[in-house]
Amino acid sequence: MSKPHFQLPKVYESQGGWGPTNDVIPLKFQDIPYAPFSKGDKLGRVADWTNPDAQKQDNREVTGRTGRSGFNRFNRDQHQAYGAAFASTFAYTHTEDESSFSVVDNRSANAKKMAIKAAGGGQRGRVQTKEPRTNTGGYRTVNQRGGRQQQGRRRYGYKDYDKPQRVRNASINIGADWKMLDEIEFSRLSKLNFGIPEAEDVASYGSVNYYNKAYDRVNTKNDKPLAHIERVKYDTTTSEDPIIQQFMQDNKATVFATDAVLSLLMCSTRTVYPWDIVVKKVDDKVILDKRPGGVFDFITVNENAADPPAETDKDTINSWSALSTEATYINQNFARQVLDNKNQHKFSNPNPFASEDTKDKLASCGYRYRKFDLTSSQAEEDAERMYLMVRTEVDAAVKTGNQTTLMTVRALNEFDPNAQGAGNSLPWKKSLDSQRGAVVAAEMKNNAAKLARWAVQAMLAGAEQLKLGYVARQDPKNNNRHVVLGTQAYKPKDFAAQMNLSLTNGWGIVKAVADMCLQLPEGQYILLKDPNRPILRIYAVSNEDLEANDDESDNDAEGEEKDN
């Protein structure tokens, strides 16, 4: 029987710190990574199957209010120690792509309803209304969200999320061979400024009737039906105006335009719908012109509304094209109806566009040719001076005491307060007399571009009054009969200030465009507003391209007249 013996194990000294040395690690453990540890580590659970989230909870407690040694019921015998981060070395990582998988919502219907109520604020601010059923009769209850809209957040209507983004077509067919020379963003145009130049009256033509002050007493309880009055009014383009042609020969100015073209250019940053201006460079002169049958011959409706009128369905009376035609008809007839046909104010020269057949059927219109100095402060010599000649128009005259002042007449129209594109405006027949300020504020918001152009046209013409009429449909479902519900007079400058219209910015845009066009070689160009973006582009075009587009515009206009 052998005697028991005891032999001390050999102690190996590790020079690199605590842990086994390389010469004593068995071969089968050589490739296993080693997690360092500290002498202060306490032994905890080898495996805790009852608390899979203990590590996550412990990690959250590390940065909590109680500091690094924060206590919770999961880490009573688990502490952060040196080498704890190396536990992820042994963790399993799933590298398979799971982007094609989706989570299926298996909640009950009640749980989903509760989640929707929590996201939308519950039933607070909702109003229950009753709508008639279409098939079974009776009524059904509909919840409508009411209350105050949250500041800075848009209120969406029924199926607003499902409405496709509107894509408009350009006002002119852009040829494949057109060369784009430059483009300017509206953000850059809005920063331009130029001092308001003084106007110089050069010549005046035509005659205007005096305004009938009886229409100042018209209101919603004493309305007047809108009459259809046949008159002839000439709206000749800039290049075909014989007076402007004579001014060009006499070198009276450098840039030539009409008040319609110039006002659109000055208010271009407010526009949403597409438009175009024809630019003609002849010798050292620039002509800003319009295309016959283009956007200048029609008036827009609620262009700046958050949800403008529909543009796709042309068969309804509330479509964009039908409303534009209706507004143009209303403006023409309202401006003729509110005048006294017995008394006239004649200008120095007769109407330059009238013929023997039309001289007795002319509409009230006075043409004032006015010159503006657009010379920069750096230009000191006369050869460097730039003058702008504008043909402006006035519609009527009014006697104030012993003086006769000039007036421009325009009409705002209401089609259907409940239709798409109405812009949440109040019904005029109920609110125009008692809440006219709210009605005007809504019109300034929904028709910011149109009203700004009207104010600019009145100031360019030197008119001291801008007379606005309020014309509504007699029946919202019929666009053939209208009634005049009231009138209101403004001073053009005060009206522009009320709309926050910057005249210095408008003249800055005109000055920049004129300088750009004067640097172009001789030829024809198109200044185009992008149909879907706030950008101006200028293209070089040929005479054939313009003639082809003019023919298409004439055909479209004839088709619309036949439809109407």
Automatic annotation (TrEMBL):
Q: What residue spans carry the region label Disordered?
A: 48-73
The record's annotation in InterPro entries points to: eIF3d
Q: Which family does it belong to?
A: Belongs to the eIF-3 subunit D family.
Q: Where in the cell is it found?
A: Cytoplasm
How does the record describe its quaternary structure?
Answer: Component of the eukaryotic translation initiation factor 3 (eIF-3) complex.
Keyword RNA-binding, does the record have it? yes
State the GO CC annotations: eukaryotic 43S preinitiation complex; eukaryotic 48S preinitiation complex; eukaryotic translation initiation factor 3 complex
Q: What is known of its domains?
A: The RNA gate region regulates mRNA cap recognition to prevent promiscuous mRNA-binding before assembly of eif3d into the full eukaryotic translation initiation factor 3 (eIF-3) complex.
Q: Return the protein name.
A: Eukaryotic translation initiation factor 3 subunit D
Give the main localization category.
cytoplasm
Note one Pfam family from the annotation: eIF-3_zeta
- UniProt xrefs under HAMAP family: eIF3d (MF_03003)
Its annotated function is as follows: mRNA cap-binding component of the eukaryotic translation initiation factor 3 (eIF-3) complex, which is involved in protein synthesis of a specialized repertoire of mRNAs and, together with other initiation factors, stimulates binding of mRNA and methionyl-tRNAi to the 40S ribosome. The eIF-3 complex specifically targets and initiates translation of a subset of mRNAs involved in cell proliferation. In the eIF-3 complex, eif3d specifically recognizes and binds the 7-methylguanosine cap of a subset of mRNAs.
Q: Which UniProt keywords apply?
A: Cytoplasm, Initiation factor, Protein biosynthesis, RNA-binding
- PANTHER family according to UniProt: EUKARYOTIC TRANSLATION INITIATION FACTOR 3 SUBUNIT 7 (PTHR12399), EUKARYOTIC TRANSLATION INITIATION FACTOR 3 SUBUNIT D (PTHR12399:SF0)
GO MF annotations in UniProt:
mRNA cap binding; translation initiation factor activity
